[in-house]
Specification:
Helix content: 10-25%
Number of domains: 1
Mean pLDDT: 77
CATH topology: Hypothetical Protein Tm1070, Chain: A
Shape: elongated
CATH class: Mainly Beta
Distance between the termini: 19 Å
CATH architecture: Sandwich
Low-confidence stretches: 1-9
Largest sheet: 5 strands, antiparallel
Radius of gyration: 20 Å
Strand content: 35-45%
Number of strands: 14
Strand order of the largest sheet: 8-7-10-4-14
Structural class: alpha+beta
Order of helices and strands: HEEEEEHEEEEHEEEEEHH
Number of helices: 5
Length: 216
């Protein structure tokens, strides 16, 4: 991957800055949302998920049973290491979308963000650790956990037209090892939850403004 030519990128960065400032000044617009009452399905421009990159040496009650010094109780003899989380976004519509993918820490503070196009009838994959946290923080995201938020816009009108149209899945990559040297590597998958668009609209300038400034 080559380095960006900032001389060539400067006009685009200035344009994005104007777009962000304009959106914050007049508010974000919301295009038509897709709802299918007959099947009970829907598409939201606002997806929510959870990531966990912690390493544990205890399970269940053993973790909750703290000693007087505040340290965990007796370990279960199994080391669980969560190495990365993949975000898969699929676009079933005929509209090209742009996804702003933001990562929050366990205190609810946004710490990193990236943006990806999601082509019509296609899937985009992004890794929380390798593609988002490491480029932003400059170090591995081990030990971090929190919320993932995805907001989608029309690709042709980034930051001016919020548009529903993607489904999302999370895949946690996990390895477990015990005292006997046995190791098990597996994945755990869950679907990202659709958040009602009203939640995004209620405080869109503050929420989207923060995400947009970090992503772009």
């Amino acid at each position: 991957m080559g380095f960006l030519d900032f001389a060539k990128q400067k006009p685009r960065l200035l344009l994005l800055g104007v777009i962000v400032a304009s959106a914050l000044a007049v508010g974000f617009t919301y295009t038509k949302f897709f709802v299918f009452p007959s099947s009970g399905g829907s598409l939201s421009p606002y997806l929510l998920g959870y990531y966990d990159l912690r390493t544990d040496d205890c399970i269940g009650a053993a973790c909750a049973d703290n000693n007087e010094d505040g340290n965990p109780g007796e370990a279960a003899g199994i080391l669980t290491n969560r190495t990365d989380v993949a975000i898969d976004l699929s676009n079933p519509t005929r509209t090209v979308l742009r996804a702003l993918i933001s990562v929050f820490d366990d205190a609810g503070t946004i710490i990193a963000c990236t943006t990806r196009p999601v082509e019509s009838n296609d899937t985009t994959r992004v890794f929380v650790n390798n593609d988002i946290l490491i480029p932003f923080l400059g170090s591995n995201g081990d030990g971090k956990f929190g919320v993932i938020k995805v907001v989608t816009f029309l690709e042709a009108n980034i930051l001016t037209a919020v548009q529903a149209g993607v489904k999302g899945w999370l895949t946690h990559y996990v390895s477990e090892s015990d005292d006997g040297g046995h190791q098990l590597i597996f994945t755990r998958q869950s679907q990202m939850q659709q958040v009602p668009v009203e939640v995004l609209k209620r405080n869109s300038n503050a929420e989207l403004g923060t995400i947009a400034e970090l992503c772009l």
